[in-house]
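Recall from the previous lesson that a structure prediction takes nothing but the amino acid sequence as input. Here we apply that procedure to Hut operon positive regulatory protein from Halanaerobacter jeridensis. The sequence below is the only information supplied.
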Amino acid sequence: MGNKNETSKKVASAAIKMSLSDREDEDKIKTKYKDTEMKVAAVDFGGEFNSSIKKIVERSIVAAEREEVIDEDSHAELGAVAGATREAISQIHSKATGFNVGGKIGIAREGDHISVSIYFAIGLLHLNEMAIGLGHRAVT
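The prediction returns the following tokens.
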């Protein structure tokens, strides 16, 4: 599987690509990784930031299960996705509190490395701030 740092970087990069992709690019990325050890998933989200935090974590877990990035019967894997998602959210918290947000969650896994990238458009009328949060967990 290679150097652990290289794997971490590769998984983080795939998660970021998924979070920044549109539907067409998302399908291409999924196809690219289909026959490799890398598993990827993505899902959109939106709403008022504070009230959306729980939904963002839930959507991450459901997307990871749906795309078989994680095993739905593994508490460790569910917790890894939830933890990485919370970490990504915490990086954006001070910018987004009190604002509406929308964006996309990208999830990638290879071996025991899981990364969650969240692309946020933080809105105030037509003036949007862009931000990305990234979390990583290892499961064994």
